[in-house]
Amino acid sequence: ETLVIGGDLLTCLYLDKSYAAYNGLLIGSTCFSGAAVWKELYERSHTVTVYNRGKTEPHPLSNESRGEFYKRMASAEFLEGDRTSPSQLKALIDPSKYEYVYNMNAHKVEDVALLAEMFVGKEQFK
């Protein structure tokens, strides 16, 4: 199934329904499309870990009540770090904990290279 966020192909996400609930890591997911992906994963009963710099507070989406938002927040784990820092990524992220990684801030190859080194080739990684 494809979930389209924002109405264009650049913000489209493939969500595989063949897997039971899984552990997902979201890089940069407090605003915009990242928050919508986080909400969608939460609503599908996946475990979500949010990794960001901690500079932007999460807030409810326009189609989400305060109560729903607080439940989504309570269900997530939060890791605060800089995605461009190899030492922080390696210190804070345990690749064995996640089956999927969604990098919501990737604009060029360098933005995903560090994460790719950590996850590609791991048995549990989908």
Main beta-sheet annotation: 4 strands, parallel
What structural class do you assign from the helix and strand content?
A: alpha/beta
Order of helices and strands: EEEHEHEHEH
Roughly how much helix do the residues carry, as a percent range? 25-40%
Mean pLDDT: 81
Please state roughly what percent of the residues sit in beta strands, choosing from under 5%, 5-15%, 15-25%, 25-35%, 35-45% or over 45%: 15-25%
- N- and C-termini, Cα separation: 16 Å
Overview of the structural elements:
The protein has helices at 32-43, 66-75, 86-92, 109-119, and strands at residues 2-4, 12-14, 23-27, 47-52, 77-80, 100-103. The protein has 126 residues and is α/β, with parallel strands linked by helices. The strands form two sheets. Strands 5-4-3-6 form a four-stranded parallel β-sheet, covered by helices on one side. It has a two-stranded antiparallel ribbon with strand order 1-2. The radius of gyration is 14 Å and the shape is globular. The model is unreliable at 1-13 (pLDDT under 50).
What's the structural blueprint in terms of helices and strands?
Blueprint lengths: L1 E3 L7 E3 L8 E5 L4 H12 L3 E6 L13 H10 L1 E4 L5 H7 L7 E4 L5 H11 L7
Parallel strand pairs: 3-4, 3-6, 4-5
Antiparallel strand pairs: 1-2
